[in-house]
Automatic annotation (TrEMBL):
This is EamA domain-containing protein. It comes from the Archaea. Pfam families: EamA. The chain crosses the membrane at residues 42-63, 75-97, 103-125, 132-149, 161-181, 193-213, 225-245, 257-276, 282-298. GO terms for cellular component: membrane. It is a multi-pass membrane protein.
Length: 319
């Protein structure tokens, strides 16, 4: 590959990476805006009704030999894990919790997912135990969560603390789901898994919404802000966002694409301040620093290899 082509590809990846971080970061602001008009779990379900159909159409269009339809027990097991944990549990916890916390705080708590993913992977695969430094990294991430949530021992049922705890549960659900989908021996294309998980997760959330007795008032959904939030989350953050994610996953690998979790809160903070007037306090910033430090320790070897690869690529491009 020529130097010019390498440079164009590098800039392309950077632009797409920042676009993905912006889409997913500002999604937290869209959630906060939409929660003014929708019940939380129903809101999440409607989002994935739309996104799931779009992803299924996309999978059917790009995959050959009927690969858009899962086959066999293992493939449907992957879909079930994705539907229950990656979509339903993650979004139900997130949307309910975000009713009482800021978009930026929610985005930062969700950024703990890569650290928790590594922790769950080590627990579920005993042969791949965490080193002492890795354990310190996980603990640093949890300290970051404690700093952000600021629990009051005398009032552990305060609305703010419970809200942040629910968002933490969302991050944990996503992390556990990510590990379990890797453990199941199935060669299901990621587009197919995402499409059917979205559809299945939406159905699960509709059931949860009904069980919770959430009000169904379509007249409230016609507000321009409600329609805008739902459209943004379904079309931009979910459908377009996951298409960018698939593309970058192939080009950058899992380590680099995980870093989007740490750039997204920056966009959530900026957009939340501009649109919702939300302000991030110093303790939230400090907590985010602990989470990033924890990620760096847990993923230190992969990051070292990744930066070494980037250095070699940069050196070759200058020759």
């Amino acid at each position: 590959m020529s130097t010019g082509t390498t440079g164009v590809s590098r800039y392309r990846n950077l632009v797409l990476f920042l676009a993905l971080a912006a889409f997913w970061g500002s999604a937290f602001v869209a959630i906060s805006a939409g929660l003014e008009h929708f019940p939380p779990v129903l809101f999440a379900a409607l989002r994935y009704d739309i996104a799931g159909v779009i992803m299924l159409v996309y999978a059917a269009a790009v995959l050959e030999d009927g690969a858009w339809l899962p086959r066999g027990r293992e493939e449907w097991a992957v879909v079930a894990v994705g539907a229950v944990l990656l979509i339903a549990a993650y979004h139900a916890f997130l949307f309910v919790g975000q009713q009482h916390t800021t978009a930026a705080a929610a985005a930062i708590l969700v950024s703990l997912s890569p650290v928790l993913t590594t922790g769950f992977a080590r627990v579920l695969v005993p042969s791949d135990a965490l080193s002492l430094i890795g354990i310190v990294g996980v603990l640093l991430g949890l300290v970051g969560v404690a700093i952000i949530s600021q629990p009051d021992p005398s009032n552990l049922l305060s609305t703010d603390f419970v809200a942040k705890l629910l968002v933490f549960c969302a991050a944990a659900s996503f992390a556990l789901g990510s590990v379990l989908t890797r453990r199941i021996d199935a060669s299901l294309p990621i587009e197919t898994m995402e499409a059917w998980s979205m559809i299945g997760g939406a159905l699960v959330m509709h059931g949860i919404s009904l069980a919770m007795g959430e009000p169904i008032d379509p007249s409230a959904w016609t507000h321009p802000e409600a329609l805008g939030a739902l459209a943004y989350l379904s079309l931009i953050a979910s459908a377009l966002g996951f298409l960018l994610y698939f593309d970058l996953l192939d080009r950058l690998g899992a380590v680099e694409i995980n870093m989007v979790s740490y750039v997204a809160p920056i966009f959530a903070t900026i957009v939340g301040w501009l649109y919702l007037g939300e302000v991030v306090d110093a303790t939230t910033v400090v907590g985010f620093g602990f989470i990033v430090a924890g990620f760096a320790l847990v993923k230190r070897q992969a990051l070292r290899e990744e930066f070494g690869s980037l250095n070699r690529l940069y050196s070759n491009s200058r020759e």
